[in-house]
Inverse folding.
């Protein structure tokens, strides 16, 4: 799993939580 994908998923999770 590419780091860029992890970063994108992290942003989505951050948006949902925030």
């Amino acid at each position: 799993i590419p780091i860029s994908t992890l970063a994108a998923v992290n942003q989505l999770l951050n948006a949902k939580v925030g």
